[in-house]
Amino acid sequence: MTIQTPFGGGDTDLWVYDVTNTAIVGAGNDDTPAAPGPSGSHSTLTRSYPSGSYTVAVSNYNVANNLGSPADDGWRAGGVLDFPGVVANSSTTAAATLNPTIGGTLVTAAKSGAFDIQFVTFGCVVPVDLMELSVD
Asked: Domain range for residue 120?
């Protein structure tokens, strides 16, 4: 599944959380890496998730939790918090259009105040391949 903020829409940052609101290791992105496709300060995260419910925390730079940036993040020098269970945004920017696309579906979301983070819940259903069946 790919989660992406608009190219040219500003410097965004996002992180995916599981159903218990725990940050998922490796499931964050600040800047889209250089390859493949256009790089920039928008966010692009492609990961496989098991079936279930998830929440993406999205804002402008810098969304921080207790986890370091994944190896495929284009910006790996963002702040990290000391404790789990906390998410914060350090930007005083009071308005930003975020509009993430989650699995191909555009979600309208905007930051309306300093330090705000938008939380968008989404579901994942992993398709089941049917093996050869026979009925006796």
From this structure: 2-124
